[in-house]
User: Fold this.
Amino acid sequence: MKKDKFGCRKSHSEPGPGDGGRTGSWRVMRPVIDLDKCIPAKTNKAACFTCWLFCPDSVITRTIPPTIDYEYCKGCEICAEECPVGAITMVDETVFIEEEK
Amino acid sequence: MHIIESGNVAAANGVKLAKVQVVAAYPITPQTPLTEKLSEFVDAGEMDAQYIPVESEHSALAVCIAASSAGSRTFTATSANGLLYMNEQLHWAAGARLPIVMCVVNRGIGAPWTVWNDHQDAISQRDTGWIQVYCSDHQQIIDTVLKAFYLAETVNVPVMVCYDGYILSHTYMPFDIPTQADVDKFLPPFKPAYALNPGQPANLNTVTLPDIRPDVRGNMAPGYMEIRHNLHTDMRNAIDVMADINKKFENVFGRNGNPYIEEYKCDDAEFVAICLGSLSYHLRDVVDILREEGISVGVMGLRLYRPFPDQAVRDALSARKGVIVFEKALSYGNQGALYADIKSALYAAENQPTVHNYILGLGGREIKTDQLVECLRNSCTQPETIDDTPQWIGLKL
Amino acid sequence: MTEKTTILNLPEDELVHPGNRACAGCGLSIVYRIGLKALGRDTILVVPPSCLTVLQGLYPIAATQLPCLNVTFASTAAAATGVLGALRAQKNESTIVAAWAGDGGTSDIGLQALSGACERGEDFIFICYDNEAYMNTGVQRSGTTPQGVITTTTPFSGKAQKKKDVPSIIAAHNIDYVATASASYPLDLYDKIVKAKTIKGPKYIHVHTPCPAGWGFNSRYTVKLGKLAVETGLFDLYEIENGKFTLTGASEKLIGKERKPVAEYFSTQSRFRALSEEMIDNIQKETDAKWAEYNKNAS
Assistant:
């Protein structure tokens, strides 16, 4: 068989992040965790992690304190809605643009 | 070992000798005895394969597609509407570059229902990206099944092994069943470049975009159009690959045959009748009769229909006075598909013979020798009286 | 199943990459992420066209870290059969084969192949994520779209027919394990898939999957609405193990209790805007009757 410039001859995809690009750019509101309220942050114990459980995009870590990967967070707000102590608030992205300036 | 058995049993023996690992099948006349035989082989422990009795032909090919993607040698068989029901899967198997082998036991398609032989089923699927090989006798059936796996796995294109319903599938003829040791010498085990594997995850047949994109390593990957172009070029390459496989086959089994065109009394023939399948053997009798009348005519059985061996066709036909294409199928509203292909191949020839088109045997309409003699005689002796439209043989309007 | 999984011992290993193309707040993303944790890495997925095809990424990059075969719409369960056949032929008895289809791919075009595979007793897990319409093609009615729902093919008066009860259809094949689950109860879903892995033969799990874009609600409420469907008794969490029906988790807790009115669920989504008071009353009565039966059987 003659070699051509493509070794692969069919639709063969390999795992890699960010196929949809930096999906953080979809976001208009940014979830921000108030560490004074967040249960694992406040108690310094592995507890709660409701935000991690429900995050559809696995951008929240099950760590103390939990962190959010804003590169990929789509801003769905599920974490803010589900946080049992209201520790996550949604903040307008324009605020951060101002800050970055 | 020489035995006398049916064409379906010849095919089944080929599949068994090829050590197929996964067989999926759904019953349809006249294919059924073939997969029944395979289920017997499996149930009796003579064949180490997974026999999966699915609930439709669409699913039969789904099983083959998936099992082949997971690295197993696979086989299925069907006829007529079963083949049509697979249509989407035929395209899928070819696009996914899976070396599936399928016997198509040719039968006319409904409506109205017919269970009898013609070629409309396979011919209507000629653009699915499958290689189509036609057989004229039982030895060709078993040998072609074995070669088909070799071919499919070499070029990564699925292969249909087509043979006439009843005329070959249900008639008994002597043929040689090669030994397993010889088949093993000829056909290596199936080793795909990639098979579904949790240790090396890949997502197969995913959605493509119109343009090419880089893969995870930053190398450009072929896009949809490149993938389709590769399918086409690999099918074209299959023409040469078939010649190599034929040589290898001859080295092991001591028998051979032209992989593209089987000629009979063609060396000096001014006129050549050409067709697919067992009809070419019937036409040998007709040629014998016309030769006695002093007509210089021969017959060619076209073995390979897709990819179309246009160079071989051109070489074989361009020096003739006339070519007469007999077809058990029709591109409705136009002409016989084979007729169109042959004319197209001859367009590049310096000398262009007249080409006639006879449509016959649809839905199993009996093909009588005297009808063939008369038509072929007319085409050879009064070619100018026959125009460029399909001429129907045996039509009772 | 002895121990129920908790947030703290749910595997941390993520098998779906972020940056995929699912909509923000996609219920399927939760189901898929949790489901893959339950299935584990020794799994081969079989997926027909659906939102999942998009979520999994466009060629040549995959959002999923498991091997996956994309197949034609009608052939999911048959293709899973083929993968199983190959694995058996290769003497691989450990790898899990999971078919993962949407409600259209399960209840409509994929039902014949699914029925065939269940009848043949294929050893696979079929997961249907039910977002109650053809979402990937832009919200057309499916067999599992509930009555009254506005879709792009039931545009003004809503779907006239009732939701097809797919788990019951599959249970009628006498397979050993049928379960329902919800995107809003990920741990329950996780435990059901883990249990399914221990059972031989066909396993069917039907997962209620809220879809913000298709149902007409703010993505913030994906989990809330899934819970509300359960709390109102409209979608029930249960298992049918060896023919025995048992309500589980949040639905089990509703036995003998007062449920939230179905109207509360309907009022949260624009897809229900064509429902009349009378239709809501009817659905409430049907739901009450269903639950009266549950309560009777439980006592």
